[in-house]
Recover the amino acids of this structure.
């Protein structure tokens, strides 16, 4: 069974902070919740869901011209959008709280409560419940242990390693590996220095991809050191915001979009599937930079009416709230709808999405929320 899907970022906390004019030293004061970023998370979730639905079924089944499929494939970049958004939100939290007691305890305690319960619940469903339902053998621990220890993107990258599990979990591994070292760096480095560390991580990631592609002939899609640049772009945006320099970069973000977005759309529609080596090296940073600029403008104009109407509406914010569950469950829901009955394409689409939304809401309401309430024990 193939339930391949991509990450829907589960990090919903929006904590900003104030800065001094000179040194970029951040206080622990909380600013207003950025509703528009909840909407951004909702958009990214829908991008991923649409991409994976049509990736598995094909646009032709819905009577849509095959040429549009390359546009639908653009939904795959929802992964990169989630990475950038995660890097931004988490780095804001870390910067704003690093002078508080219990900095590491609180961050990792709250993250464990948000990520691990649903992560392991789905592994239990995938590895033990589904085989019983399908009357198929349970995979041996020797092939599944990678997933229990957040190492699944190693066998995804180094294909001589044998593993079996939900393919979409690679992206969770990338995030967890990144956040193993990033909080320490935030704790030690001043905000201005952290800005350059973010740039350095982006450069390092590009260099590692070049080594993998040109030197080792290894795929770069899944491996942590090949995908950290999007998270670092988000961290860079957080550094600019918390140091008070984002406003001065407004024209730069507009310039980035004006210059890079048209060629990005052209390349995606014309070169998707080409497998060109140079694209494998640069495309993730290219996409990450575009989303960096888009999020930068959203943060800058968060109080504008059109941003509020477009991204702050209730539906997108609701989708953003349950997005972790959508990440985990949507591939399974598509699979179950396919197995349950043969439906006309439009009904299959409707039932697949409806089941994903229902399961994700119920999971959030009755399984995830009890753990989230425990976060109160990890704040000062």
């Amino acid at each position: 069974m193939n339930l391949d899907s991509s990450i829907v970022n589960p990090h919903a906390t929006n904590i900003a902070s104030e800065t001094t004019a000179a040194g970029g030293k951040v206080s622990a004061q909380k600013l207003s919740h950025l509703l528009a970023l909840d909407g951004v998370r909702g958009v990214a979730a829908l991008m991923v869901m649409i991409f994976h639905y049509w990736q598995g079924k094909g646009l032709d089944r819905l009577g849509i011209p095959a040429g549009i499929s390359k546009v639908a494939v653009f939904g795959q970049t929802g992964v990169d959008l989630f990475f950038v958004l995660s890097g931004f939100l988490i780095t804001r939290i870390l910067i704003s709280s690093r002078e508080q007691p219990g900095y590491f305890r609180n961050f990792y305690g709250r993250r464990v409560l948000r990520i691990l319960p649903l992560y392991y619940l789905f592994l239990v469903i995938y590895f033990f419940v589904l085989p019983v339902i399908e009357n198929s053998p349970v995979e041996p621990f020797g092939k599944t242990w990678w997933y229990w220890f957040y190492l699944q993107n190693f066998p995804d990258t180094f294909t001589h390693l044998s593993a079996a599990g939900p393919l979409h979990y690679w992206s969770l591994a990338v995030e967890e590996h990144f956040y193993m070292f990033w909080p320490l760096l935030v704790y030690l480095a001043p905000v201005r220095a952290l800005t350059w560390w973010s740039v350095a991580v982006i450069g390092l990631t590009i260099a590692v991809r070049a080594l993998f592609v040109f030197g080792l002939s290894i795929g770069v899609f899944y491996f942590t050191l090949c995908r950290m640049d999007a998270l670092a772009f988000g961290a860079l945006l957080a550094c600019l915001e918390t140091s008070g320099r984002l406003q001065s970069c407004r024209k730069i973000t507009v310039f980035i979009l004006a210059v890079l977005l048209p060629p990005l759309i052209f390349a995606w529609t014309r070169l998707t599937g080409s497998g060109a080596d140079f694209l494998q090296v640069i495309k993730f940073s290219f996409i990450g930079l575009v989303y960096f600029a888009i999020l930068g403008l959203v943060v800058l104009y968060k109080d504008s009416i059109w941003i509020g109407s477009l991204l702050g509406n209730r539906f997108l914010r609701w989708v953003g709230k349950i997005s972790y569950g959508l990440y985990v469950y949507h591939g399974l829901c598509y699979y179950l709808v396919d197995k349950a009955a043969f439906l006309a394409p439009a009904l299959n689409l409707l039932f697949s999405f409806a089941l994903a939304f229902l399961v994700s809401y119920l999971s959030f309401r009755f399984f995830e929320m009890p753990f989230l309430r425990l976060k109160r024990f990890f704040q000062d």
Q: What stands out?
A: The mean pLDDT is 87. The longest helix spans residues 103-134. The chain has one domain: 35-378.
